[in-house]
Design a protein that fits this description.
alpha/beta, single chain, 168 residues, globular, 7 strands, seven-stranded mixed beta sheet
Length: 168
């Protein structure tokens, strides 16, 4: 990034926090995914999510990740429950191939619960056909998984690609 002209590049290891400005910090969290950021270099870089703190507000961007109960419970234990969790719900079929790197909607609901998130926002679905599930399947599967788990629709929201949301 620096070679491309970026300024203020900060490299973090998992669980490291960078205080960007007073009252705003970013913590790199582990994720379950493979990485190929350089040609010929599989898994030579960390893959992760970002836990953001702005004053008393906490937001967690999961990034791409397979489900791991110990991982998401430890994020809650180390960093607290996020006010907003952005959790992927798409690119999960076929399970035999995608399970290590991408969770399905039922696993996404479990992440919401493992984190004790106040509000979760579904992401990583509907923009293009990436895997075997139909482009519009993830929101339907999420609604069914929320109903099965007893998670209210207003606790785990889906917005359409390009739509925005205002916090309440």
């Amino acid at each position: 990034l620096a070679a491309a002209g970026a300024r203020h590049v900060v490299e973090l290891d998992w669980w490291q926090t960078h205080a960007w400005t007073p009252g705003f910090s970013i913590t790199l969290t582990p994720a379950r995914h493979w990485c190929r950021r350089r040609v010929g270099g599989t898994n030579h870089r960390l893959w992760g999510g970002f836990f953001l703190r702005a004053g008393t507000q906490r937001a967690y961007f999961v990034g791409d990740s397979g489900y791991d109960s110990a991982l998401f419970s430890s994020i809650n234990q180390r960093l607290g429950a996020p006010d907003l969790a952005m959790i992927p719900i798409g690119a999960y079929e076929p399970r035999w191939f995608m399970r290590p790197a991408h969770m399905n909607p039922a696993e996404s609901v479990q992440v919401h619960r493992d984190l004790h998130a106040r509000l979760s926002l579904a992401m990583h679905w509907g923009c293009w056909q990436l895997t075997d599930e139909a482009r519009e399947d993830p929101p339907c599967a999420l609604a069914a998984a929320c109903a099965t788990a007893g998670v209210a629709a207003d606790e785990f929201r889906v917005i359409a690609p390009g739509e925005s949301m205002t916090a309440r």
